[in-house]
Write a structure and sequence with these properties.
- This protein is about 0% helix and about 75% strand.
- By secondary structure, it is an all-beta fold.
- The chain has one domain: Quinohemoprotein amine dehydrogenase alpha subunit, domain 2 (Lipocalin, Beta Barrel).
- It has an 8-stranded antiparallel beta barrel with strand order 1-2-3-4-5-6-7-8.
- The chain is globular and about 35 Å long.
- It starts with a strand and ends with a strand.
Length: about 100
């Protein structure tokens, strides 16, 4: 299952629904890319993929400085999973290939 490509994500956060664009590229079990939302873009780090599972971290500055930890599953053109923001909690995300 390929995680490569551009994904339109929706996160159900404590601050309401947040949309972002995720661009991923895999090589072996490593994943690189960018997460962009509201005019800001950040490189993802610690990206990994195995089978249809994928995980990565992204440090954001808006609405507050946080490191988000994503864990998800790819199913064809769909992706879904959870985002953890440490003490703030976690919430679901889902998306589809652009």
């Amino acid at each position: 299952m390929s995680v490569d490509g551009t994904w339109n994500l929706v996160m159900q956060t404590p601050l309401g629904e947040r949309k972002s664009t995720l661009m991923l590229k895999s090589a072996g079990g490593a994943v690189t890319g960018t997460l962009a939302a509201e005019g800001n873009s950040t490189e993802i780090k610690d990206g990994k993929t195995s089978g249809n599972s994928v995980s990565w971290k992204a440090s954001i500055k808006n609405p507050m400085p946080l490191t988000l930890e994503f864990t998800g599953t790819v199913d064809g053109g769909k992706i879904s999973g959870n985002v953890s923001a440490g003490a703030i909690g976690s919430w679901p995300f889902s998306g589809s290939k652009a």
